[in-house]
Design a protein that fits this description.
- There is one protein chain.
- The chain is α+β, with helices and mostly antiparallel strands.
- The chain has one domain: Arc Repressor Mutant, subunit A (Orthogonal Bundle).
- It contains 4 helices and 3 strands; from the N terminus they run H-E-H-H-E-E-H.
- It has a 3-stranded antiparallel β-sheet with strand order 1-3-2.
- Strand 2 and strand 3 form a beta hairpin.
- Helix 1 crosses helix 3 and helix 2 crosses helix 3.
- The chain is globular.
C-alpha cells in the first residue's frame, strides 16, 4: 500500500497535535479526538505508535479509557532512529511556538 505525501504530512501533523495536547497533561484518546476534531480510531493508532516508540506512556485509567502522557526521560540509552528524531523535531517545534 502506497501512502501519498499529503497523507504522510497529515499523519505527522496529527501526531504533533496529539503530542502538543499531551504536553498539557494526560488525556484519553477519545478526549484527544474531540479536542483535535480527528476520528477516534486514528487518534488511537497515532497514540499507540507513539507509545511503541517510547514517546508516550500510560498514565492511568479514567472510567474505562486509558490515559496517555508524554513519556518521561529515562536513564536508558535510546536507540538512534525515529524516537530521537521525533524528540529533536518536537523540541524545535516547541521552541518555535
Amino acid at each position: 500500500m502506497w501512502r501519498t505525501l499529503d497523507t504522510i504530512v497529515m499523519d505527522e501533523v496529527a501526531t504533533f497535535e496529539i503530542m502538543d495536547e499531551l504536553q498539557k497533561g494526560p488525556a484519553a484518546a477519545k478526549e484527544l479526538a474531540e479536542r483535535l476534531f480527528l476520528p477516534a480510531p486514528h487518534v488511537v493508532r497515532y497514540v499507540l505508535a507513539l507509545q511503541r516508540r517510547g514517546i508516550v506512556s500510560p498514565a492511568g485509567v479514567q472510567g474505562q479509557s486509558p490515559l496517555y502522557r508524554i513519556a518521561e526521560q529515562t536513564g536508558r540509552r535510546e536507540s538512534p532512529g525515529i524516537v530521537c528524531r521525533m524528540r529533536m523535531i518536537w523540541k524545535c517545534y516547541c521552541s518555535a511556538s
